[in-house]
Amino acid sequence: MAQLKSRRIVLASRPIGAPRSDNFRLLEEDIPDPRGGEVLLKTLWLSLDPYMRGRMSDAKSYAEPIGIGDVMPGGTVSKVLASRNKALAVGDIVLGYTGWQDYAVSDDTGLRKVDPTLAPISTALGVLGMPGMTAYTGLLNIGKPKAGETVVVAAASGAVGSIVGQIAKLKGCRVIGIAGGAGKVRYLTEELGFDVGLDHRSPNLTEQLQAAAPNGIDIYFENVGGHVWDAVFPLLNNFARVPVCGLIAHYNDTGPGPGPDRLPGMMNTILYKRLTVQGFIVLDFDSQTDAFLREVARWVREGKIKHREDIVTGLERAPAALAGLLEGRNFGKLLVKVAES
Amino acid sequence: MAQLKSRRIVLASRPIGAPRSDNFRLLEEDIPDPRGGEVLLKTLWLSLDPYMRGRMSDAKSYAEPIGIGDVMPGGTVSKVLASRNKALAVGDIVLGYTGWQDYAVSDDTGLRKVDPTLAPISTALGVLGMPGMTAYTGLLNIGKPKAGETVVVAAASGAVGSIVGQIAKLKGCRVIGIAGGAGKVRYLTEELGFDVGLDHRSPNLTEQLQAAAPNGIDIYFENVGGHVWDAVFPLLNNFARVPVCGLIAHYNDTGPGPGPDRLPGMMNTILYKRLTVQGFIVLDFDSQTDAFLREVARWVREGKIKHREDIVTGLERAPAALAGLLEGRNFGKLLVKVAES
Predict the structure, then answer these.
(1) What is the pLDDT of residue A246?
(2) Distance between CA atoms of B231 and B306, rounded to whole angstroms?
(3) How much is the ipTM here?
(4) Which of A241, A308, A332 is nearest to A280 (CA)?
(5) pTM for the model
(6) What is the predicted pLDDT for the residue at A198?
(7) Cβ <8 Å between B264 and A253
(8) Which pLDDT belongs to residue B3?
(9) Which residue in A277, A281, A283, A284 has the most chain B C-beta atoms within 10 A of its own C-beta, making it the best mutation to test that interface?
(10) All domains of chain A in start order, with CATH
């Protein structure tokens, strides 16, 4: 095969605060032919997710920071262009973690075949992929929803939040979604079937949430932090559960905020309300992948779970799209369409 | 029976900061004869416990605040002096919640007979009572200790901490106890068999804890808060569990501390280390009382769990003793000997 040129986007410098275009660099490089056991992959879809901000930073996180000059990491759906691996054939569609580049050479570690006849292949990065599984495992294992309970989820029109809320509805809960802007808020109730949608930009979010949750809050699926946390926290019921999945409002923080120090008050509330606050990442529940795929794929097929994609075309637009994601400018699961097929 | 005079200590005013003598008032009152279904109880032992500070305050807590003029609440071991209740006979020893007074008239709600032939009756307020059960249920249900793990407990020579550490040792854990003062610290290793004892007053507690926990900390039984939390928190391992049982360092706080605001940093750490921070109170595990009594009584009989009482004689000394407890001046389970028998 003739030598392929591949664009790759690497980390040029670590962002301070919000990522800017000069934190990224677009390089063009030769892609080597696959060696024994390897495949050559053409990226079709690249997933953009909030955790990426953490990996650009060298602050402590659950994942190692990437190095300066490393390809930006990310989940991808790719097509096998050439294969020297018996398990994968030319034309196969695979889910992988090959990052922000047009082409990648990889052994089969971490690759999973995607059946394009079952669902659109991009869903392997969304409702049937990491975000969906994050929602499913965090809500069920830590949130433990019971019928009649009140569940609050923020970033509720996003890739994770939208699934959390819909699964909570399927479990018989009252679901309050919080999102940014009238369009997203309408989507929550009109399309996703949430009981209430609230706009986090509203100046009286606290009062609105109080009115929407007259019986208090039993589960808060935490994926934003910030002022939404402040509105939710006082309304948590005794024995409420808080799966901590993300803190997107803080990812661009450059240091601890000013006082007062809310930590002792939070610990006191955890004690007297007997709250459970538990962090998780989706990898912790790897063993539940089959159950997730079986159950959520069925719900999607039956129309019980809807999902929405926000598609940006062109690898070169990934840096700006990631910055927008961190500011809540996407509407639905954010994907970069890297190539047609 | 001739009318009995009973001293009772009531809440005179709500403390601001540490409780002072003028927050209490000692009254002397007639005790009525018991009516049908009631018993007359003579208080022998009164338990003093940190939670009492919370009940003196009208800040939110898991228990209702008591009213001004109400008898100070507290667990007691009493003798039945007169009975108009078929289940209880004169001379019976009972565990109850009759508070800071010499005598009480009560129906049998909340009374439990104590067998004085099994163990000294004061243990019903300590190792075989609420503090022991707090230690047992919090450690086993939330801490979930596994052999080889590292457990840290503060207030480690106290009524709860000493039992937490000894049960953790029985479960095969490495146990680091933190206490105030050389005598208590020595007691942890020499008497209770902890692996390490540290003094929280040491200016380099953080470094000492780091050296004592080379493999990090898997369980932190939180019953103090304050600067011990600051030393422990950075050393928590991935998937560490933090049963939140008490925050004695903060009970006299008069408001939130100055900044920086540590809450977002804590949430971030909960997320990336996948911590579980869970509050509890002993009543949440009521159904485990029999298992607790059976197992811990056996450990006490076999000498596998030791306990220490710090006894103050005279009801009138209870207010000062409670203030001392909140400053860590007790050494072991703090009890007031109200009457000889």
Answers:
(1) 86
(2) 27
(3) 0.88
(4) A241
(5) 0.90
(6) 98
(7) yes
(8) 66
(9) A277
(10) 4-126+308-337 (3.90.180.10), 130-284 (3.40.50.720)
